[in-house]
Design goal:
306 residues; little secondary structure; 10-stranded mixed β-sheet; 3 helices; elongated
């Protein structure tokens, strides 16, 4: 969980799952947008420093250019609209700390977006992104990044993606990852990592170096085993979350999961028995699980819009 004193916005990725009671700072919600579900209206708050245009059929940023004061705007919410792109001059919003573009049709982002000096929360969930721009990992202050429900894979990421050292919550659920690069170890302040409902076949051993991680969501992938190094993570106990279900685990792991859930699995992968088994396991000896039905993205999008 993120620190109690930090009133950060809740990312959408895991929190759309009604099976999980998730807290992020002071927020406790399964609503699809940040702290609370935005009303279908437009708002201007605090002398125009916060702008909300939700479900207004906006297709380009030019439609609201007359409302944006580049010197003062701190929060911009354009969720549930019809945007297909973000303009390069988004970088002019030098005081922006929250940008919510949830549920649009955005296919591309400008490289300039990562130069926003004060941006802490970026929600790009439920769009049509299949690639991220060069330098996307250059955000100087970003703490929460939500890329849930896109078409992103490991091939979509620029080389510096995992070098956002200020990042504390990363939501990559419902995408197309088959593997996670070992560079994830550079996210030294990460507390929440959501990888649910991808096509992950393996996890990197470097994941075990994320000593501040409190939540790991890897349910609904194609995982059969876990690297022994991941057992170093303290993910069992109060204020910890570990989601492992709906993976085609090898029989030994599945047996532990059936007996005692994530806690039993975590104890097992720390055991000498599992370490020995993992050391002798040949990659070719385990059949590659088939990909799952990706229609889930379409159905969930319909639910969110309802």
């Amino acid at each position: 969980m993120l620190d109690e004193q930090t009133d950060l916005v809740v990312g959408v990725g895991e929190f759309g799952n009604t099976e999980t009671d998730v807290r992020c700072g002071k927020a406790k919600s399964i609503a699809p947008i940040f702290k609370e579900k935005m009303p279908k209206t437009e708002k201007r708050k605090e002398e125009s420093t916060e702008i909300e245009h939700v479900d207004r059929n906006i297709s380009t940023f030019s439609q609201i250019s007359h409302l944006i004061d580049a010197e003062n705007i701190t929060r911009l919410t354009l969720s549930h609209n019809k945007l297909t792109a973000v303009p390069p001059n988004i970088a002019d919003l030098i005081n922006l700390h929250t940008l919510n573009l949830w549920n649009n049709s955005i296919e591309e982002l400008p490289p300039s977006i990562s130069s926003l000096p004060k941006l802490r929360i970026l929600n790009l969930g439920m769009n049509r992104l299949s690639i991220l721009p060069r330098g996307f990992g250059s955000f100087p202050a970003l703490e929460v990044l939500d890329l849930t429900y896109n078409n992103i894979s490991e091939r979509s990421l620029p080389g510096n993606f995992f070098f956002i050292q200020t990042l504390r919550a990363l939501y990559l659920g419902d995408n197309d990852f088959e593997m996670l690069p070992g560079d994830v170890e550079n996210l030294i302040n990460l507390q929440i990592l959501v990888l649910r409902e991808n096509d992950l076949l393996t996890l990197p051993k470097e994941l075990g170096k994320l000593s501040r991680l409190n939540e790991l969501h890897i349910q609904g992938n194609r995982l059969t085993m876990l690297p022994t190094e991941i057992g170093y993570l303290e993910l069992i106990g109060q204020k910890k979350t570990l989601r492992l279900e709906h993976n085609p685990w090898i029989p030994d792991i599945q047996e532990q999961f059936d007996l005692g859930g994530g806690a039993a699995v975590w104890g097992y992968i720390r055991s000498e028995k599992y370490k020995y088994l993992a050391s002798r396991q040949e990659p070719s000896s385990t059949p590659v699980p088939p990909k799952r039905n990706k229609d889930k993205k379409i159905s969930r999008k319909g639910i969110q819009q309802a």
